[in-house]
Amino acid sequence: MQQSLGNGANPAFLACVLTCLVLSLNLLMLWVSSGAIRAQGGVAINPEDGARYGAPVSELDPPAVARLLRAHRNAEATIYPFLLLGLVYVLAGGGTRIAVPIFTIFIVARIAHSIVYLRAMQPWRTIAFAASLLATLALMAAVLCVLLTA
Amino acid sequence: MQQSLGNGANPAFLACVLTCLVLSLNLLMLWVSSGAIRAQGGVAINPEDGARYGAPVSELDPPAVARLLRAHRNAEATIYPFLLLGLVYVLAGGGTRIAVPIFTIFIVARIAHSIVYLRAMQPWRTIAFAASLLATLALMAAVLCVLLTA
Amino acid sequence: MQQSLGNGANPAFLACVLTCLVLSLNLLMLWVSSGAIRAQGGVAINPEDGARYGAPVSELDPPAVARLLRAHRNAEATIYPFLLLGLVYVLAGGGTRIAVPIFTIFIVARIAHSIVYLRAMQPWRTIAFAASLLATLALMAAVLCVLLTA
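YS: structure for the whole thing
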């Protein structure tokens, strides 16, 4: 198929797809965990769940759930822009020499951020966040470079 | 135009576009409703709105608004990864035989989730969420398959 | 490279990439500011940060931080769907005559929304949000048009 980007001829697209798969899994694991830990903790945020499971209903989540949701929200705030920029970079014809190191640093930084956030490890959380932010800024610069040299 | 994916020659892309349209509408309706219901309820979350409409200002939203925002956040957490993966699947050259059933199940599950969340219907909310999650995992597997057989 | 969309031959893709760059920057600035203002304000939302910086820990953010997070959440709720639809529009072969005015209105409306939200200026916040919403609905209609005339 002519329009396909997914064959071996475009390794930058392959890197982008793998990044999308790993980070989507990261996001979904955080989200599903927050619901699972809330249910395990015997509290409910919706009255219908409280009635169903005989659990007390509270607007405020227990600390472990609130922490998971903060980690998830931080992941959303950084991962969605990065994946959109990564896709745009590859569609613009950007190569692997820049994509692979940036994508790798971002993936490692984001997985590390989830782990150290849940384990309450500072200053590692701030370091992991800063690394993911720098990788995003580097990707923005790379997108601009591809546009200017096209 | 040669690079276009949108003509009849690529029905998988067409399915992806329709999925993106329907689910974007789903997200925007939840978001706009949350603001509309808050305004109707005569409360404000911003002091400038309270001053403007003579409404009491509260950090905590009334239950109906909080429920809409929870439904919206759940929709965001599942729909954005799915749409990115769906786009990547189609760009990789994935076909309709897998895309159409997975996209259809996801759309139905997500619309059902919004409705039953707002109507506080359990266990349907959990079932709809689980179906949308399984469709996402199936799409991830499909993306991997396309990459490996390309 | 044949599959590339990024060369001068496709100005609609160029417009889409610039939109993605500007709005990603908008999102990241709101997000980073919320963390920076919280740290400056001498409060912590995580106990490990409170211990590290000798700051009181509170589940509820101070008003300036809560405002930034509301502005960020509004930006997320509107920008991600728009960028996905914009990418889909360009991949479907949509032209610049429709893309450039819609993308421009959306960018201006979103940047204005961030500014007037942080400055608590009404009714400008509502006007900016409505403009961004209308631009999104116009983009949805444009995507449908491209599909039907392809």
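YS: worth flagging: Chain C has a mean pLDDT of 91.
IM: good catch. Also Residues 51 and 57 of chain C are 9 Å apart (CA to CA).
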